[in-house]
Design goal:
This protein is an alpha/beta fold. The chain folds into four domains: 52 residues, Phosphorylase Kinase, domain 1, CATH 3.30.200; 267 residues, Rossmann fold (3-Layer(aba) Sandwich); 199 residues, Dimethylsulfoxide Reductase, domain 2, CATH 3.40.228.10; 95 residues, Barwin-like endoglucanases (Beta Barrel), CATH 2.40.40. The chain is built from 25 helices and 26 strands. The strands form six sheets. Strands 5-4-16-15-14-6-7 form a seven-stranded mixed beta sheet, with helices on both faces. Strands 22-24-23-26-21-25 form a six-stranded mixed beta sheet. Helix 2 crosses helix 20, helix 3 packs across helix 21 and helix 8 runs antiparallel to helix 11. The radius of gyration is 24 Å and the shape is globular. The chain starts with a strand and ends with a strand. Bound molecules: iron/sulfur cluster. Iron/sulfur cluster binds next to helix 1 and helix 6. Iron/sulfur cluster (SF4) binds next to helix 1 and helix 6. Keywords: 4Fe-4S, Iron, Iron-sulfur, Metal-binding, Molybdenum, Nitrate assimilation, Oxidoreductase. Its cofactor is Mo-bis(molybdopterin guanine dinucleotide); [4Fe-4S] cluster. GO terms for molecular function: 4 iron, 4 sulfur cluster binding; metal ion binding; molybdopterin cofactor binding; oxidoreductase activity. This is Nitrate reductase subunit alpha.
Length: 704
């Protein structure tokens, strides 16, 4: 009997908007992908990437179909049976841990993984092997937002919801080209403004992006100048009596010290640092403070910085100082880059987190998780976050690295250092779905992973909404769901290393992992301990915390999950970016997304429709800079930083301020040789979030 057409409800696998989709499939083939009109986060709408998802589902050689092992002498790969691959992974891990200790093992995961994948990886690292060396590419994405929320509001919890977009009177967009990076939310904002013509939109961005062009006030901030801008806005609010004194007195602490700090940040003084005219700073401050409801939407422009946490905190201060928080249409609202970075934070699969938003530095928290997992204790040695993991590989503190669903040999900054670290590792396991991922070239063992729409589980989007992800077609070749691969290796490691822990991984299905994970949230700020798959099937997607029903908005009572119930103003100063322009490197380089590509293009590169938007990489310069460096449009140009160089065409772009260059983040060494654009970027990180400064380095250009 011929296969029937099936419709499977799931979630788009790209950005943190978390749009619901309906996947029409027949047998092994996906026929089409449409927006799910019943999903509350997108109500049927999709952007160009979501609409082209069907083109990216492949069963051919663009996929990793079988396990492969590399001969260390010849460098040649050969296929091996899956069970042999799992044995080899387990033997390597156990031998390494026996000889060098648990911290010789590291896990580098991905915001693309499902919550269930994170949960089992985390349990394997911490409860079985005994290391906190587990981190994800969310370190490149939202970790400054996490640190900013925790230090000011007490918990890693975005307080607002998408429906606040329709309720806001002023919307401040900082460091986000929403029109490209979160298109469905941007279109929602444009519709909201049509319905509320009085709405004012302020966009803070060094470039005059499509998002900035929709602004009533575009503040073309000098890259790295955001803290000076936010402090100057607060200065205006203090000077003009625009503060909500009652809110500050009743719901916050620490304002007096910050008020002293920002005294010197007058608009006139700040304009030299942040590049914004004093009058515009005053206008932005007034619009922000005097609006009945102000919502801030922000992402990588604040986060990917060596002062990313300070930028987040300085923006949150504006909301606390004006009481623009906990009310409809107001609040600071970070837009998550990856589809399930939130789920990874909830599962605690990061060096600086434990499940349920707990802290690995806290003995109480470690003991709580150990008890719930059924082990005696968890490791107390601090884990190594993502960028430092590659330093640890270089100096042999970490010897074996297990990479899953991410492409560090293209996406991490300072590629020459990253690639050297991968080459020098004792053993690299790469669990991957796409054969084009550049990191595969550094793998000793390749494990074939299933990907969207072949996997089931859950994801949490930017507005704290948990949705079911459902498999629509079987995985090709021998590819398996990520959690099943981990389960197979973990069982083998347990048999050799700690037989009494083998029972830790006796899950029958994703639902069992989710149920255990949900129990770990009990009593925590995100509490969804009563949720399970049957309930999620009944309720549909819900927002945490979930207690009989979801929670749309946090902190409406003016109480915060801090020790004293008050939000904190933090006395934070301004720090310049890690690199400053000089005679040898006279241009600032910033990086970002294009509309139709995603990350390192392993998936979007499979869609002819998406490729057509921009087919080749280019460096974008202001026409005046092109004239200064005698570069003709489309001329091949050498771009140099202190770490390396690449060659690619130059393109005129008057959306840039003179002195500032832009490179799309998507292309690697195959397009331009030598490690791609991240040969140029540097690995300086924020002191609180450990997030790298991918948005700023200094460069020189000349004709090739
Ligand atoms: Fe997918 Fe994000 Fe586009 Fe929605 S906005 S369809 S989640 S890429």
């Amino acid at each position: 009997m011929p296969d029937e057409i099936r419709v499977t409800r799931s979630i788009c696998c790209y950005c943190g908007t978390g749009c619901g989709v309906r996947v029409r499939s027949k047998g092994e083939q996906v026929i089409s992908v449409e927006g799910d009109p019943d999903h509350p986060s997108n109500m049927g709408r999709l952007c160009s990437k979501g609409s082209a998802l069907a083109e990216t589902v492949r069963r051919d050689t663009s996929r990793v179909l079988r396990a492969r092992v590399r001969d260390r002498v010849t460098g040649a790969y050969r296929e091996l049976a899956l069970s042999d691959a799992f044995d080899l992974a387990a033997e390597t891990i156990v031998d390494t841990v026996r000889e060098h200790g648990p911290d010789a093992m590291g896990f580098y995961l991905s915001g693309q993984l499902l919550t269930e994948d994170y949960a089992i990886f985390n349990k394997m690292a911490r409860a079985l092997i005994g290391t906190n060396n587990i981190d994800t590419n969310s370190r490149l994405c939202m970790s400054s937002a996490v640190a900013g929320y925790k230090m000011t509001l007490g918990a890693d919890a975005p307080p607002a919801s998408y429906e606040d977009i329709e309720l806001a009177d002023t919307v401040l967009i900082a460091g986000s080209n929403m029109a490209y990076a979160h298109p469905v939310l941007f279109q929602r904002l444009m519709r909201a403004r049509q319905a509320r013509p009085h709405m004012k939109i302020i966009v803070i961005d060094p470039r005059n992006t499509d998002t900035a062009q929709a602004a009533d006030l575009h503040l073309a901030v000098t890259p790295g100048g955001d803290v000076a801008l936010f402090h100057a806005m607060l200065n205006v609010m203090v000077w003009e009596g625009l503060l909500d004194q009652d809110y500050i007195a009743q719901s916050t602490d620490g304002f007096a010290a910050l008020k002293e700090r920002i005294r010197e940040f007058t608009p006139a003084a700040a304009q030299d640092v942040c590049g914004i005219a004093a009058d515009d700073i005053v206008t932005a401050a007034r619009w922000f403070a005097q609006s009945p409801a102000t919502l801030s939407l922000y992402t990588m422009g604040l986060n990917q910085s060596s002062s990313g946490t300070a930028k987040n905190m300085a923006l949150i201060h504006l909301h606390l100082a004006t009481g623009q928080l906990g009310r409809p249409g107001s609040g600071p609202f970070s837009l998550t880059g990856q589809p399930n970075a939130m789920g990874g934070r909830e599962a605690g699969a990061m060096a600086t987190l434990l499940p349920g938003h707990r802290d690995p530095a806290s003995a109480v928290h470690r003991n709580e998780v150990a008890a719930l997992w059924g082990v005696d204790c968890l490791p107390d040695a601090p884990g190594v976050p993502a960028i430092a993991m590659f330093d640890a590989l270089l100096d042999k503190r970490i010897r074996v690295l297990w990479i899953a669903a991410t492409n560090p040999a293209q996406s991490l900054p300072d590629q020459n250092r990253v690639r050297k670290a991968l080459q020098q590792a004792d053993f690299v396991i790469v669990q991957e779905a796409f054969a084009d991922a550049e990191t595969l070239a550094f793998a000793d063992l390749i494990l074939p992973a299933a990907t969207w729409p072949e996997k089931s589980g859950t994801m949490t989007n930017s507005e704290r909404r948990i949705s079911r992800v459902r498999a629509a077609v079987p995985a090709p070749g021998e590819a398996l769901s990520d959690w099943k691969i981990v389960q197979q290796v973990a069982r083998r490691v347990a048999q050799k290393w700690a037989p009494h822990k083998a029972a830790l991984f006796e899950y029958q299905a994703e639902a069992d992992i989710f149920a255990e994970h949900a129990r770990l949230t009990a009593g925590r700020d995100l509490d969804y301990s009563t949720l399970d798959y049957p309930l999620l099937e009944k309720t549909g997607p819900v927002q945490w915390p979930y207690r009989n029903e979801g929670t749309v908005r946090l902190y409406s009572e003016g109480r915060f999950p801090t020790g004293n119930g008050r939000a904190h103003f933090i006395d934070v100063g301004f720090n310049a970016p890690a690199e400053t322009i000089s005679a040898h490197f006279p241009l600032r380089l910033t990086t970002g997304r294009l509309r139709d590509h995603w990350h390192t293009m392993t998936r979007t590169g499979l869609s002819a429709t998406l490729i057509r938007h921009v087919e080749e990489p280019a460096i974008y310069l202001h026409p005046s800079d092109m004239a200064r460096y005698r570069l003709a449009d489309q001329a091949l140009t050498r771009v140099k930083s202190r770490r390396g160089q690449i060659v690619l065409p130059v393109q005129a772009d008057d959306s840039l301020t003179p002195g500032c260059a832009f490179l799309p983040m998507h292309w690697g060494s195959r397009a331009m040789g030598g490690g791609g654009i991240n040969v140029l970027t540097h690995g300086a990180t924020d002191p609180y979030s450990f997030q790298p400064e991918l948005k700023h380095c200094v460069i020189a250009v000349n004709a090739f």
